[in-house]
Amino acid sequence: MRPNKLRQLWAKGGVALNGWLQIPNTWSAELMAHAGWDSLTIDMQHGLHGMETAVQMMQVISGTETMPIVRVNWNEPGTIMRLLDGGAYGIICPMINTRAECEAFVGACRYPPQGYRSLGPTRGVIYGGPDYTEHANEEVLTIAMVETVEAMQNLEEIASTPGLDVIFVGAGDLRLSLTGRFGYASDDSELNAALDRIAEVCARNNIIAGLFTVSPQYSQEMIGRGYRMVTVKTDGMILSEYAKQLVDETKQGL
After folding, report:
1. 49 an active-site residue?
2. Could you list the residue range(s) of the whole structural domain that residue 25 is in?
3. What's the CATH code of the domain at 167?
4. Which of 34, 46, 49, 135 is labelled catalytic?
5. For the chain, what is the domain count?
6. How far is CA 8 from the centre of its chain?
């Protein structure tokens, strides 16, 4: 089976740089895949993708060394299994609040006896290789999002779920749940305390801590604080911010 580049990076003590795709388009996905990200996440929760578009985007990503990951819109086994059959090498599941929810999520990603994933990797075997089914449980990543006060209360139980590979922090939702405030403020003391606790619990349970950030500088800071999977902005943010910068700079000369 095609090895999972992220697992190889982490085994060597490295950090995975993850891009984020909200635009439902194969050309933008191909551009991002050739930019050098270690992985790209097709966001089906807040992005604008449907199932067919997500699979088509995974097809263009597969022409590079970038690993295809999908964030599902909810902890729904049927959708998770279809996306894995479509070639996803990792699933990010939002709003995991309890050990039971995490066990259900991980189980949907694993073939028996480790889980209850149904057998039939339609495109997975094309992308992954003829021995996909024998090794999928070892290569496919399970990534649970911690985003609420309830999840923080159950953090130890979630992190120790057998078969879980990564806890990925939705910092915006977590800050909103903790404080009632919107945004990604990096100087929020309550959020920072939660982020440090998540990194510590992940390290103790031998799983990876990851999160979404809005700048390279903040990503580098969080790597220094123990996070080994970092996302920097979305394709939509990159396009809109740089487009506005170009327009503003050009208008200054008029």
Report:
1. no
2. 5-252
3. 3.20.20.60
4. 46
5. 1
6. 16
> Is the bond preceding 24 in cis, omega lying within 30 degrees of 0?
no
Which residue do the tokens 């915006």 mark? Answer: 172
Task: Kindly give the confidence (pLDDT) of every residue in the chain, 254 residues in length, as a single tens digit, with 9 standing for 90 and above.
Answer: 999 999 999 999 999 999 999 999 999 999 999 999 999 999 999 999 999 999 999 999 999 999 999 999 999 999 999 999 999 999 999 999 999 999 999 999 999 999 999 999 999 999 999 999 999 999 999 999 999 999 999 999 999 999 999 999 999 999 999 998 887 767 788 999 999 999 999 999 999 999 999 999 999 999 999 999 999 999 999 999 999 999 999 999 88
Is 37 in contact with 232 (CB distance < 8 Å)? no
H/E element holding 213?
strand 208-213
Q: Token pair for residue 108? A: 């949907």
